[in-house]
Amino acid sequence: MPENTLYDVDLLVIGAGSGGVRCARIAASHGARVAVVEGRHWGGTCVNLGCVPKKLMVQASEYGDYVADSHGFGWNTEPGTHDWVKLIDAKDREIHRLNGIYVSMLEKAGVRLITGHARFENTHTIVTTPTGLDPEAKPGRITARHIVIATGSTPTKLPVMGADLAITSDEVFSLPSMPRRVCIIGAGYIGIEFAGIFAGLGASVDLVYRQALPLRGFDEDLRTALHDAIDQRGVRQHEKSSPTRIVRNGDALTVTLDNGTRLEADCVLMATGRHPKTEKLGLETTRVRTTEDGRIEIDRHFETTDPGIFAIGDVTNHLNLTPVAIAEGHILADRLYSDHARGWSFDTTPKAVFFTPPLASVGLTEAEAAEQGATDIYVSKFRPMRHTLSGRERRTLMKLVVDQATQKVVGAHMIGEDAPELMQGLAIAVTAGLHKADFDRTIGIHPTSAEEFVTMRTRTRVAGARGRADD
Ligand code: NDP
Predict the structure, then answer these.
(1) From the CA of 167, how far away is ligand 1's center (Å)?
(2) Pick from 216, 273, 327, 375: CA 20 to 30 A from residue 45's CA?
(3) Which residues form the signal peptide (predicted)?
(4) Is 446 a catalytic residue?
């Protein structure tokens, strides 16, 4: 790569989250001179306030079930007590370890690390101001040929009276003690996952959401099965409801809903979406345009309206998922600094929601496929083997969505134990455009739940084109 001495570095990445780190590392591996500016925490939301601590907490919340379920298998175990502070300490230690890994990964790749808040001075210049992440950091200025904005997103609160009394996912991972009563507003990814975590750890949980079913955007059968699973987890669901105000009531908080219901809680968690983090970036000094909903406008090469400035990950508000940001960072670094580009299938990005039991999906929902034409639907609902002895009321639902004309499997959906683990493999099949016949000729692994995906021989119904009708 020809040396470009006009600028301090070839590439400057703002934000060391999943997308930014991948972009920086790959660009450096292609020989680019790269710097990353980070002001808050190495690893970004996923490592510090998202996927990683969330998954550890989901796992923590499931041990109580294992103890209870073991009785059916002959164990004389007694239910124990849970120590929240011990969990948070253990989780913090693990995150601290991961922060270190991120730093050393970048350093080993030859990336220059700058701690501080980054602000554009112009299209090719960034000024940095210390934020406290590194006590020895000094203000600075750096120029770059290309700048990537990978600043991610931040939680949004509903503008209701008393919203400042509610916390978001930014605070939930470091609560000083375990709340006994939790009111969660919103039934998207975060609301559902924390309803499961708190219920599993023994809290009394109210879940408030404005739809008839949780998790809008997922397949309807999955949403219905999730609704049942939430009931079975002991979470009280307040469907078709929104909060109108939150007031402090001694040590407790009272949440009033638009139907007049009043809920008492020790902690109110607003899980009502995230918005791109662009404020204080100094975008007004550039030609970067943002959309009405605050995301940075980009073209198909992640380039903003100011040539030379790019944006990846949640700040573009495409699909706010860690592996998507990583893929975007990788594609961009390859495109800018190498002549080989890898193809990625964003259309078949698998998704998972870590409730207990978890959900996972890839490809089209039944409704989306039916919009496009006649669709064969295969559904299987059963009690997993473990619960024949545990006695727990828990069902698994699996579903295949098959384009009738081509017989391609265009969607797969599951709620049940290990659904995310299993869906990763199915995502390869759906990405590869495999047909139902390929699933049918695959031999199952017995006894597993997964084998059901290759033994669904009888179509449950037809959707789309000639209407949704039972066969
Ligand atoms: P989501 O967009 O998933 O869910 C937001 C929830 O808030 C929905 O129930 C939504 O209702 C509700 N809501 C939004 N606006 C209002 C309003 N004005 N009044 C009432 N309710 C409202 O956001 P989350 O905060 O749960 O998560 C943010 C993002 O983080 C997700 O989109 C996801 O991309 C990512 N994430 C991914 C995870 C994973 O992959 N497992 C885990 C956690 C987060 P409605 O549906 O009606 O709009």
Answers:
(1) 15
(2) 216
(3) none
(4) yes
